[in-house]
Amino acid sequence: MSNAILYWNTSRISDIVEGLRNQGETVDDDTLAHISLLPYKHVLPNGTYFNEDELGEPR
Question: Which residues lie closer than 8 Å to 39 by C-beta, 6 or more apart?
């Protein structure tokens, strides 16, 4: 699980930094070196499940 979180966070941070730089923002590589890639508060390890009957009514 931690490898998947690390991959996801690395991918997202890279996309965000690239977007900021494309908008003309200065994002210093030394600052990025202090960002942790292992926070996981946004991850639901047990998933989210929805159970509905044939009519779409919650059970």
Answer: 9
